[in-house]
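Quick one:
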Amino acid sequence: MGEKSPKAVITDGDLAMRDAIKNVLPDATHRLCGWHLQRNACETIKNPNLLRDFKGLIYDNNDHRDFDRRWEAILDKHNLVGSTWIEKTYETRAIWSHCFLWDKFFGYIRTTSQCEGINSLIRFYINRKNTLIDFMHNLDRALKKYRNNELIADFKSQCLEPVMITSLEVYERSASCYFTRNIFKEICNEIQRAGALNIKVLSTTLDKVEFSVTALGDLAKDRRVEVDRGKNLFLCSCKLFESRGIPYSHVLCAMKFENILEFPDSLIYKRWTKNAKNEFISTEMPVNDDVERVLKFRVGALASNCNKLCDIACKDLTKFDEVQFELVNLVIRL
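Output:
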């Protein structure tokens, strides 16, 4: 993988895998699958009312003290004091509760459902009666389906203009320039939530200002946002940008207060951008390969570079004219 090791790993809780991850991937953050934890809770405790409270401990954005308080309340409410499974689960809380993992990047993945989805798709194309040749053909069909879905998603992100739906259109347009369509929709939801937040200045020192951001009608949900005006950096106590990679409503509220009209580089996570794959497409051509594959490879490499060129040139009239002139001459020459 380009001499890079995974930064995050999610498993179903198998002890052998847990030990292997510690030895082989010591720098990776290991997380237990939330769905498997819920299933184990239902099967072991056999209390249907426990699931809702337990899900809150897995996914909610709490601090450590609030987690311990809620954990004790659940033990008392469901009479679980002394349960062996509960005690073992509490000991591993650092690898399954979001409040202990909120500064670690997992994107939006908190379960192994994506792996299960891939397995389900492959089972649709492959069965145990397949010959080896059938297996290879059917597996190729499954991969083509995945690649086609990726091409459709890329087309929607690169070529379609989204409809602006919020009152903060300036932020929507800025997000539509950088992010893929799916991430753009998530950011739109956060822009809408920002309209229901209150903000006030707590302190100002040189180029830094600290805000208190609270939900309308619920002052208990207080988030602290620190803005470095000199470096255009934002730090929120919710740590949701660190764990998911998109600017959240608290930060957007601070941006609006500071009259910042475009997303700064510090809030643009490259993984979620339209051009995230550009730098990872090799320009080396495969040798001794079939003609069709070589042509597809060349088209992909050229399209990637052209997309990046268009993104840069369209934002400045001088650059646009220069690129347009050079492209016309290049086409004539070829």
